[in-house]
Design goal:
Distance between the termini of chain B: 22 Å
Structural class of chain B: alpha+beta
Helix content of chain B: 10-25%
Shape of chain B: globular
Low-confidence stretches of chain A: none
Shape of chain A: flat
Number of helices of chain A: 1
Largest sheet of chain B: 9 strands, mixed
Largest interface: A-B, 39 and 57 residues
Structural class of chain A: alpha+beta
Oligomer: heterodimer
Number of strands of chain B: 9
Distance between the termini of chain A: 32 Å
Radius of gyration of chain B: 15 Å
Chain lengths: 50, 154
């Protein structure tokens, strides 16, 4: 039998989650551009040692 | 995380944006969380901040709502939710100041047993001209952090 991957969401740790379609308008907007810019600079120079 | 958390957590359809209300001495403050894909298609950046009265978002300001741990635990809950939809992605995050990065390290350290059940946890260290990803170890200072959902089979 194929094993099923079960990934618990926020509700499994006690946080009720509600869908809010008003948040969908942010999906094409970067709300934290400076943070993303900084992250990209770091990630461009990222090496793995694990 | 063992800390109290805010609810409900409001989520966008793609589980990349979340919001919740911080409630404390300064009143109700709306907090938004966003996961943005970086230039590396396997890594999302996690950021969050306060929604200001004019609708702008501030990720630098201290809200002084005396609920730091509760906010961090709720942001951690967004990682649980996000990774149900994007389980193969890494999530990178760091504080906007060294003090905040230290707070994140403390929060991870204080909840490491619980978090390690569901996530691989890494530290990002400065190394020469770049950065190195290493396994997270308690007591080590890191420049930032990365997590990835473990695949738990049942």
């Amino acid at each position: 039998m194929k094993q099923k991957i079960i990934l618990k969401g926020a509700e499994a740790i006690g946080v009720e989650v509600k869908q809010d379609k008003s948040l969908d308008k942010f999906s094409k907007v970067v709300l934290f551009p400076d943070k993303l810019k900084e992250a990209n600079k770091i990630i461009a120079k990222l090496k793995w040692s694990v | 995380m063992q800390y109290a958390k805010y609810a409900p957590l409001l989520a966008s359809s793609d589980l990349r944006e979340f919001s919740f209300i911080s409630n404390g001495p300064k009143g109700e403050i709306k907090i938004v969380v966003q996961f943005n894909l970086t230039e590396n298609s396997t890594i999302y950046n996690l950021a969050f901040g306060n929604v200001q009265p004019d609708g702008s978002i501030d990720d630098i300001i201290k809200n002084n709502n005396k609920d730091r741990n509760k906010v961090l635990a709720t942001v951690a809950a967004t990682i649980y939710e996000f990774t149900t939809k994007h389980p193969d992605k890494f999530i990178f995050f760091k504080g906007s100041t060294p003090e905040r990065t230290r707070l994140y390290r403390m929060a991870i350290t204080n909840n490491i047993k619980e978090l390690a059940i569901d996530f691989d946890i890494y530290g990002v260290e400065l190394y020469k001209e770049g950065y190195t990803v290493v396994d997270f170890k308690i007591g080590v200072l890191y420049f930032g952090f990365m997590v990835k959902r473990k695949k738990n089979y049942f």
